[in-house]
Design brief:
- By secondary structure, the protein is an alpha/beta fold.
- The protein has a domain at 57-200 and 292-324: Vaccinia Virus protein VP39 (Rossmann fold).
- Helix content is 35%, strand content 26%.
- The chain is built from nine helices and 14 strands.
- Strands 2, 3, 4, 5, 6, 7, 13 and 14 form an eight-stranded mixed beta sheet that branches.
- Strand 10 (263-267) and strand 11 form a beta hairpin.
- The longest helix has 21 residues, at 57-77.
- The structure holds S-adenosylmethionine (SAM).
- S-adenosylmethionine (SAM) binds at residues 36, 39, 44, 47, 59, 88-90, 94, 114-117, 120, 143-145, 163-164, 166.
């Protein structure tokens, strides 16, 4: 005789990516949400605003490396025809710099931005179409952690851009799994350009995620606004405090939303009430920081052969070019 197991009947919304992630993240201890949840239309706008903040050195430093070294980077890519594929492209403002360098070198470039934010992809396509009509743009709306199959297989070499320190949002084992999956989908000789934020003085790191104008705090709380709107929840974002801390042992900045009071929050579409103790936090993002050695080591472990790297004068940010080995 077999005992009948009971399969709990979960609301339909738990089978959508957002519903599943929120259900999983808020029923575990400690509570966690994945950073992709930030990026609805408002979140993408707020991220753009973050990139302009005086404290947020990352975007401006990486952009300056591209402006100074873009031609060199593309020379290393070495082909007259190139498919430039970007994971988590956002509005691709910084990528313009590399695309402009490709146009100056008279390369025939097709640009494939991949992102989960439709509004960001629309904006990228519109702007590049206006500014660089020589570049063909083929956007792909997809979650690259689930569907790297969207990477195209054209008859020309591929240069995959994974820039903006996005690899830092993953736990080390997840980051390696993602890069290995990417490697399996590339052909020998295809290239990866990885942009990583370097380990540096604590105060500089903390200020970048705790800006005086409070834009990062709004970006963090936007995850709750999105859950309210899309999952009929009743979060009061003002009752959650943005907190960013440097975890030196793990070499990462952590972002949290800390409950200011004990509270119960209904999330109706999930048939769930999330309970918070005063001071309890939802861990919403990690941003791992690398030494140059750790970045090169990660690439090698994932079967990419480092070819060249570029940094700024202060060594704050690193751009690593590696070949699918
Ligand atoms: C930190 S922004 C970086 C944007 C741009 N690459 C840059 O360097 O400024 C992260 C971007 O990745 C996108 N994103 C985050 N997780 C994603 C996922 N799993 N699949 C596809 N796009 C994702 C977000 O929508 C957002 O546009």
């Amino acid at each position: 005789m077999h005992a009948l197991s009971t399969i709990p009947c979960l609301p339909e919304a738990t089978s959508t990516p957002l519903g599943a992630e929120v259900y999983r993240g808020l029923t575990r201890m400690p509570k966690r949400l994945s950073p992709w949840i930030f990026y609805d239309q408002r979140g993408s706008e707020l991220f753009e605003a973050i990139t302009e903040l005086p404290e947020y050195y990352l975007t401006r430093t990486e952009r300056a490396i591209f402006a100074e070294r873009g031609e060199e980077i593309l020379e290393a890519a070495g082909a007259p025809e190139l498919a430039m594929i970007e994971l988590g492209a956002g509005t691709a403002v910084k990528t313009d710099v590399l695309l402009e360098a490709a146009v100056r070198r008279e390369l025939a470039v097709t640009y494939y931005p991949i992102d989960i934010s439709e509004s960001a992809l629309d904006e990228a396509g519109r702007r590049i179409g206006e500014r660089l009509p020589q570049v063909a743009v083929e956007p792909r709306l997809a979650d690259y952690t689930r569907n790297l199959g969207v990477i195209p297989s054209p008859d020309c070499p591929r240069l995959v851009l994974y820039i903006g320190s996005s690899i830092g949002n993953f736990e080390p084992a997840e980051a390696a799994a993602l890069l290995r999956d990417l490697r399996r989908r590339l052909a020998p000789g295809d290239l990866l350009l990885l942009g990583v934020d370097h380990v540096k003085e604590r105060g500089t790191l903390l200020r970048a995620y705790n800006d005086a104008a409070g834009v990062t705090a709004e970006f963090n709380r936007n995850a709750l606004c999105r859950i309210n709107r899309e999952l009929d929840a009743k979060f009061r974002p003002g009752l959650f405090q943005h907190r960013a801390v440097w975890n030196e042992r793990e070499s990462r900045i952590e972002m949290h939303l800390e409950s200011l009071i004990g509270q119960e929050v209904p999330i109706r579409a999930l048939g769930l009430t999330a309970s918070f103790r005063r001071g309890e936090s939802i861990h919403t993002e990690n941003s791992y920081k690398f030494t140059p050695e750790a970045a090169a080591e990660l690439l090698k472990r994932c079967d990419f052969a480092p070819q060249a790297s570029w940094s700024d004068a202060r060594g704050w940010f690193g751009v690593y070019l590696a070949e699918a080995a």
